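citrate synthase (unknown stereospecificity) (Asanoa ishikariensis), 266 aa
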Amino acid sequence: MTGEPTVQEVADWWATAVSRVEPDVIELRGRPIQEVIADTSFVGVIWLLLRGQSPTPAQERLLEAAMVASVDHGPHAPSIAVARMAATCGIGLNNAMATGVNLLGDSHGGAGEQCLEMLTAITSRQADGEPLESAAASVVDQWRARSKYLPGFGHRFHRVDPRRAPLLERVSAAVADGVVDGGFLRAANAVEAILAGGRPRPVPINIDGCTAVVYGELGFAPPLARGLFVLSRSVGILAHAWEEAGQGRRNKGPIPPSVTPTFLPL
């Protein structure tokens, strides 16, 4: 760009295929908003905006199940706890929500993305001709060399995550119906079998792993697994922040005022 920018150059700077907004016109991926309002669910709109086309009813139901499963895990979750505290500090509901969302990092909120990366690596090796069990073992070894935590497996509260069965059953049904291929489900089952070897108790797949399977089967890239989780968990963050705001408490801290933190002298 040389000289003064033209109007067209400025318009091209913000070129987008996501939406078109002009006087009296709103379109999402080329569809008039009037049509979208009339026939598309919120989850369907998420798919439309991210993928550029509408999902099939079966794809939409599977995506919705994964997003419903992730909405909340109570004040044990740091994102929920901090949103509730923020709601008592004289800031707006949007600020409280942003506070919670901003805690969704690699350790809290990122396991789904990481698990999908791991499962993608397994399916990629399979596509190159490596048997499933060998591919899964190699990728698990690589991840274990990086961290003692394998993303998407095991849970600090649940021996078996109560969200596991309903989600994986839906994926299995979708495989049987030809909606998805099943490669990510098979990869996750292979990892689960590896982790169960030689242990008195298995290390079952958790919500992050289950949603990684769903998002992988539906063709979402690993970074979008975290983005979709953030959208889902925002519902719980909003509900908790709103509940806390209505309780009238001011400046809520992480522990009750009657409890004094342990002092550890140097």
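The beta strands are 19-22, 25-28, 31-32. The chain is about 55% helix and 5% strand. ok done for today
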